[in-house]
Amino acid sequence: MAGTDIKSDADQKVGRTYPLLSPREVEALIAEGRSLIIVDQHVLKVDAWLPYHPGGNKAIQHMVGRDATDEVNGLHSAEARAMMERYRIGRIEGRWQNLLPPIQGGRFRPRVVDTDKTSPSLSSSDSSRTASPVSDKDVRQRRPAAAAAAAATPPPANTLPPDGLAHLDALTKQEISLDLSKYPALDAATQSAIIAKYRLLHARIQSEGLFDCNYTAYAIECVRYALLFALVLAFLRIKWFATSAFFLGVFWHQLVFTAHDAGHMGITHSFQVDTAIGIFVADFLGGLSLGWWKRSHNVHHIVTNAPEHDPDIEHLPFFAVSHRLLGGLRSTYYERVMEYDAAARFFVGLQAYLYHFILLFGRFNLYRLSWEYILLGLGPRKGPAAWHRWLELAGQVFFWTWFGYGILYCSVDTNWQRAVYVLVSHVVTAPLHLQITLSHFAMSTADLGPDESFPQRMLRTTMDVDCPAWLDWFHGGLQFQAIHHLYPRLPRHNLRRTQRLVQGFCEEAGIPYALYGFVDGNREVLGRLGEVARQAAILKKCQGVVVRGEMGAH
């Protein structure tokens, strides 16, 4: 194959030569079912790694056909990035133009079989860098079984009438147009310049030692945790149950910040060590699955605020942060249609008023998701993360033994007091759910296509919350979500120091940096929820008009 006698610097280091692959060849391989991603100008075939990836297979699937260099560097340790070299099958030249991954509906042209020859060949359009649109007829010819199955599947019960769909489409176009006017252009030159500036910023952050963990700060955190749990036991002993429950809720709230750091390898930067720390904190002390969180959260970092793909904004029937959720979208994460049914219509209509109230009970849902992940074995069953499932299971048994049996059953006197203890301890953790949703619910959910760079998308879909430095302990670093999304492995105690550098990058790149005070951020979220509720009311009227029209026609 052409170019096999040329070695890049990375090839020289590992002593291997990789063939030069054209974009058309990469497209054809993906059409044949291969999972290919681009990292550091190399083509990686990661099919064999999908079942073993500690962060779940879906995070990888959303990068198929795309340049994943910034996502890989942001989310992975140096050890993991070195391991990826074994999956290289080729290299590319020049800037890679991203394709739409199959999991997101991308369609790819297969090789053209020449009946006069014994081997397949590529089509004549080898220079094409994008997966070109194909007709429905072509798809049926290539995948008759899949097409037949799709044709046999009835549309979801909540399919909107044509007027409703047209209204949603108009809103989507309006949202995209607004973002295109506010953010840098999507042409190759502009986005390449943004990527170059982003990588220079990464090098500067690294040179200033901001990726180094502040272990003194963690020592202080551990003292705080110990003090909080001592207060839990002290008030439990004198039978001040509600007060004990309050401090237990604060204890859980604070613990999550360290579990979050460990899940991103932001403490020791060792995958196994940080994972063990995270499981101890999340499962043994908090009753929540770190593995479930990593599987969900990694997808969130890849496709932030995408209504069809990001599980962190897929909260029907309780919340809809985008009008697109009103049309019955299919979630690629949950692999089901998110029904906009009667329950959703009720809650979404009132979501601006129920937002803070519903967050009070968010922890109960996390228990459900944690047990579902562990019992169904949704994480890797082989590879370096296989043993995590059993450690998490042990952690859950330990948690429900000390909390469920030791505190609730043995230490609290009556069933009524037990109910109050559970309610108070869980409601007190509501600020955590507010902190998590605050940074995304009010931000853009528009899809600007595969040409948008990683840093621009992260800053377009994430806001930071402004607060005085003395309140950092309360927010736990989650107030710097925009910075965290740009550099997920950055230790949280260094996020404030990094803020000025990110602000300088945004000014230079021309990307708006969303920074709101805590109160103003809440107003923005409530405004977004109220706007989607108004659109839901308009759709309901559209449906009513169509129904009355059909009845009149008969």
Automatic annotation (TrEMBL):
Residue ranges of domain Cytochrome b5 heme-binding in the record: 18-93
Molecular function GO labels: metal ion binding; oxidoreductase activity, acting on paired donors, with oxidation of a pair of donors resulting in the reduction of molecular oxygen to two molecules of water
PROSITE patterns the UniProt entry points to: CYTOCHROME_B5_2
Localisation: Membrane
Transmembrane segments annotated in the record for this chain: 225-252, 273-293, 342-361
InterPro entries: Cyt_B5-like_heme/steroid-bd, Cyt_B5-like_heme/steroid_sf, FA_desaturase_dom, Fatty_acid_desaturase
GO cellular component: membrane
Chain residue ranges for the region called Disordered: 107-159
Keyword Oxidoreductase assigned: yes
Family, as annotated: Belongs to the fatty acid desaturase type 1 family.
Pathway in which this enzyme or protein is active: Sphingolipid metabolism; Lipid metabolism; sphingolipid metabolism
Biased composition (Low complexity): 118-134
Any one of the GO BP annotations: sphingolipid metabolic process
Record flagged with keyword Magnesium: no
UniProt source species: Schizothecium vesticola
Keywords recorded for this protein, A-Z: Heme, Iron, Lipid metabolism, Membrane, Metal-binding, Oxidoreductase, Sphingolipid metabolism, Transmembrane, Transmembrane helix
EC number: 1.14.19.18
Pfam family, one: FA_desaturase
Domain of life: Eukaryota
Entries under Gene3D superfamilies matching the protein: Cytochrome b5-like heme/steroid binding domain (3.10.120.10)
Topology in the lipid bilayer: Multi-pass membrane protein
The name this protein goes by in its record: Delta 8-(E)-sphingolipid desaturase
